[in-house]
UniProtKB/TrEMBL annotation:
InterPro entries: Cation_antiport_E. Residues 206-215 have a biased composition (Basic and acidic residues). This is Putative Na(+)/H(+) antiporter subunit E. It holds the Pfam family MNHE. The lineage of its organism: Bacteria, Bacillati, Actinomycetota, Actinomycetes, Micrococcales. Its main location: membrane. It comes from the Bacteria. Residues 182-215 are annotated as: Disordered.
Length: 215
């Protein structure tokens, strides 16, 4: 089978790939810190070039995209970035090198490649957290998180990750993904989530150098 035939068989339609293209444009603008029309248009051209010309495994999308939920997500995301920036600044001034960090594992509701990537990038763009490992098979993201000293703080961070996942599911998740979300008003938010490692254990892990084994 020729390369062109393989490309045609493995390629999604332009309509199906539209959410992915828009997301790549957003990532391009965030990476450069430049949201000018010219830079975004250039990012759009690069996104089209990557998704339409390179022979890559296709990213299977749900075929739905909620503009309303995307707008709500953008507004919420900007507020979270501003709030987290102030928090990181305050921690740097008041605690400095004495701040307690942790490596936390958060089990998502699903293990869809696109949704996991969107959640990981969202949390990484919010100051104070960084993705350090991905367990794709089990749908677990591991984060290095600033200023985590108690189990309550660890749970609060886990809820923020699951809230980001829920936002992306509402934006572009499949009907099966939407069914995984808790019913509005349900007080039990932990049934669909995995465990978070002990903050004390994670702080020891975060402080060990690369390549050192757990004793």
């Amino acid at each position: 089978m020729s390369t062109s035939a393989i490309r045609r068989q493995s390629r999604n339609s332009l309509r199906a790939e539209l959410p992915l293209i828009l997301w790549l444009v957003v990532v391009w603008g965030a990476l450069w810190g430049d949201w000018s029309p010219g830079n975004l248009v250039f990012g759009l051209l690069l996104a089209l070039l990557v998704t339409r010309t390179l022979v890559l495994p296709p990213v299977r999308l749900s075929g739905r995209f909620s503009v309303v939920h995307f707008v709500l997500f953008v507004v919420t995301f900007i507020w979270q970035v501003a709030r987290a920036s102030i928090h990181v600044f305050r921690v740097a001034l008041t605690q400095g090198p004495r701040v307690h960090n942790a490596v936390l594992g958060v089990a998502l509701r699903q293990n869809n490649d696109l949704l996991m990537t969107a959640v990981g990038h969202t949390m990484a763009l919010i100051p104070g957290s960084l993705v350090v490992e991905v367990d794709r098979g089990n749908g677990i993201l591991y984060f290095h998180v600033l200023d985590i000293a108690t189990a309550e703080q660890a749970e609060a961070f886990k809820r923020s990750v699951l809230d980001a996942e829920a936002a992306w599911i509402r934006i572009m998740g499949s009907r099966e993904d939407l069914a995984l979300l808790p019913v509005k008003g349900d007080p039990d938010r932990t049934e669909a989530t995995g465990a978070v490692e002990s903050p004390t254990e994670d702080m020891d892990e975060a402080e060990r150098g690369p390549g050192q084994e757990r004793s």
